[in-house]
Amino acid sequence: MVEQAIYQHAKQWAFEAGEILRQAVKGELTVEYKTSAADLVTEKDKEIEQFFLDKINTHYPEHFLLGEEGVQQQQTYQPEDEIVWLVDPIDGTTNFVHTKSNFSISVAVYIKGKPTVGVIYDPIKDEMFHVLAGQGLYVDEEKVPAVATNKQMEEALFCLNHLWLAPNDDLNEQPLQQMVREIRGFRCIGSAALELAYVATGRMDGAIYNGLGAWDFGAAYVMLKEQGIACTTLKGEEVYPFGHATLITASKKLHQQVLANYIELKH
Ligand code: 2AM
Ligand code: CA
Ligand code: CA
Ligand code: CA
Question: Which ipTM score applies to this complex?
Fold first, then answer.
């Protein structure tokens, strides 16, 4: 089965990329700004994405790569008709540079639009979240059980961006401040892919994002679907996997409650 071969390669290459990053945090990093001083990129981001492009070109020359750093030359193609790898070479570059932990490599493969393979690897914890659609979600060798569906708001731990608790252009902050008062706690781990993997495994109960790229959520989306966890845009619509998206994920009941009571988009 081609899916099995792709799945094994995705895991193996994520592990090999993780080994490069485990070594990299021990040395000096070359850091540049992209759009601002809060938007970092290192030579390792580009190196790892290039590593994936070389592997894909060697083993699957007919596949496409959509990565954050854009190392594959732009080509026009219909992602729904092709096999597409969505790769974030380092998700959590700020953590990679500063805390040297809580970053990940996120790899997804969508076959003719179908979310098929998801791999998120935390090289510092040496923890790999992985799924082949229909075969179950795993952390390393352990199959992940279904997550609780009956949690109350006061028992819930959410990943949120602290910036939305202050006045901002996108979301009304008062309902979110109210939500933070009602839930058990909120976390900002700093790697969206890892945060979403934590939701898929039930370590966290939900997460809310105002703007993610396909490479950020691609792998986690396969995991969340596998677990039957709701994952939509902040308007409650289906997520388009090959572009930018707002995102809210939680078990169905919490997802409905948060969307109805705490998310007020300004536009
Ligand atoms: P990155 O490290 O791959 O850039 C940090 O809170 C999380 O948000 C990380 O997953 C980070 O991914 C992502 N992120 C950083 N800047 C972003 C931006 N401008 N738009 C969307 N996501 C971003
Ligand atoms: Ca980035
Ligand atoms: Ca990212
Ligand atoms: Ca990145």
Answer: 0.95
